[in-house]
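Give me structure tokens for this 168-residue protein.
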Amino acid sequence: MITIRLLVPSDADNFKSLRLAAIENSPTAIWPTRAEEEARTIEQTAARIQSTATQAVFGAFDGTSLVGITGVRREPLAQVNHKATIWGVFVVPRYRGKGIAQELLVAATAHASHAWDTIQLMLCVNSENRAAKELYATHGFVTFGVEPSAMQVDGRFFDEEHMVRRLG
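Here you go.
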């Protein structure tokens, strides 16, 4: 049985391990590079997943194993705090196709909407990642622009689609 919950600082080791696996599995979908992620201390990682008024990170657990993650963040500035950004959606490959990414998105959306009164969610996705784009579309996201050469991996540039979902 999969459970979804907010991550806490004591989940930092598991989060970092899963992020490293995500980078290995999907280097054109995840920022940063492996070396950059490895360079973060466990204290930095713990701070990164600590829920605050501007950030929250959710994990999908199979028992005690972290098998999926996503984050949501927003700016604290009054003019833009009505919107939030979804980031870092990843599910371990053998757990894909079971609705876990959808559940993570639902949890992040509910948090942004209820805890922060967010009315708009944003995200970016590699233009070549058809499965992710389809997932986001089923969750109500629509593309509003494309950033050319947004990411460079192994000397190759990738475009990113900017997507939005209105909540209110």
